[in-house]
Amino acid sequence: MSTVRTLIRNGLVITAADETHADILIEDGRIAALAAHGTAVAQSWTADRTIDATGKYVIPGGVDAHTHLDFPFGGTFSSDDFESGTRAAAWGGTTTIVDFAVQTVGHGLREGLDAWHAKADGRCAIDYAFHMIVSDVNDHSLKEMDLLVEEGVTSFKLFMAYPGVLYSDDGRILRAMQRASVNGGLIMMHAENGIAIDVLIEQALARGETDPRFHGEVRKALLEAEATHRAIQLARVAGAPLYVVHVSAEEAVAEITAARDKGLDVFGETCPQYLFLSTDNLAEPGFEGAKYVCSTPLRPREHQAALWRALRTNDLQVVSTDHCPFCFAGQKELGRGDFSRIPNGLPGIENRMDLLHQGVVDGHISRRRWIEIACATPARMLGLYPKKGTIAPGADADVVIYDPHAEQTLSVETHHMNVDYSAYEGRRVTGQVETVLSRGEVVIDRRAFTGRAGHGLYTPRSTCQYLN
Ligand code: URP
Ligand code: ZN
Ligand code: ZN
């Protein structure tokens, strides 16, 4: 914990609720006070270190609600571990991640969670928490869900996709939802009809359609929408809230919107890749499209407007990265000649705050909405607020000094993620993280990494704070 008093002067402080020209006093790793510039109170403050934020935004550190570090998929592991992944997150202005621990079929939740603690312990540059992927719903794992909620792992991801691996059938999903309705857990759903998709994969491969672009064609928007609809109905029957992860199809957004119009506790997350990339990328020649293989898949670019609109109308509430990087060389290449063998996932943990700021620059969302979908709501949704996700007295001093005018070009040459390509190679964006504090410690200092592996702490969570 920092014992240093830090002052951030002259910045525009942006939270989900307000934009104020205020100075911030940080003590012992927490926000001690805010006061308007130039007031007697602000001028009376003294500190060991003063950061001048003139002309800059001062925003809460990003909360990335969906990452996969050191994650097993398709016979390999995502290429960022907890050390490299959290360092890259810090570079991108994210100060908290919630990563997915995995239950292996035939084993308990506890075993899976312990394994993820061992992967992360002592390696993280920023704070972290866990969700639990439940791949084997049975009497034992249902009981374990209660224990996990008690100890701060309050959300559980289920898969309607990937039969034979992570998939749960409707009966298992219903049972997990019923349990969550009692123990307060939040069910997070990968909503794609995996059984139907597997038929389409087999048929496509039999026709010789093996290129990456067919990954997008078989994982149809209608099958995302159908699964989203089914998940919503199952959650209604169980009386449980539902959070649909990585929503990419306009038709799936419509299902979530309809549920929310009925007043249901149904929430949706999308990711920067669905807002900025499209099936055009999946169709890039020479197997380049493999770089963009993720599930749910990228959609035709027309879907992007629907996603931005839903972010504006709060029909989608959160933007996370679903950071799940695989190198092109040796990992994505596993699927040459068979798109179904390409490991699913995109890198992005470092790019989210900047890409969403570009959404502000492009007029899709306001500055406060930027902070709401990237910091405050993920923290509320996952029981981390107001410790995380805002700048207010008592909150952890997770603070980003953001230069809204800096121009940068996203590239593998300059990023810090441990992956050999950028999904946004050559894209110009306006805005850049300048300095990052994690619990009062400067971990990025005017674009130099000053953090360390092991600074980041495991952060248990309360239950969802976003319910109606
Ligand atoms: O393609 C993806 N999204 N990979 C990570 C696993 C998941 O389904 O979130
Ligand atoms: Zn998923
Ligand atoms: Zn994911």
Summary?
The protein is α/β, with parallel strands linked by helices and 468 residues long. Helices cover 32% and strands 22% of the residues.
> What is the percentage of strand-forming residues?
15-25%
The CATH superfamily title of the domain at 61-381? Metal-dependent hydrolases
CATH fold name of the domain at 61-381? TIM Barrel
The helicity comes to: 25-40%
Q: What's the story with the biggest beta sheet?
A: 8 strands, mixed
CATH architecture of the domain at 61-381: Alpha-Beta Barrel
Q: What bound compounds does this protein have?
A: N-(aminocarbonyl)-beta-alanine, zinc ion
Mean pLDDT: 98
Radius of gyration: 21 Å
What distance separates the N and C termini?
Answer: 36 Å
Unreliable spans are none
What structural category do the secondary elements indicate? alpha/beta
CATH domain class of the domain at 61-381: Alpha Beta
Descriptive notes:
The structure is a single chain. The chain has 468 residues and is of the alpha/beta class. The protein has a domain of 321 residues: Metal-dependent hydrolases (TIM Barrel, Alpha-Beta Barrel), CATH 3.20.20.140. Helix content is 32%, strand content 22%. The strands form three sheets. Strands 1, 2, 3, 4, 5, 16, 17 and 18 form an eight-stranded mixed sheet that branches. Helix 3 links the parallel strand 9 and strand 10. Helix 4 packs parallel to helix 5 and helix 8 packs parallel to helix 9. The longest helix is centred in the middle third of the chain and has 18 residues. The relative contact order is 0.18. The mean pLDDT is 98. One zinc ion (ZN) binds next to loops.
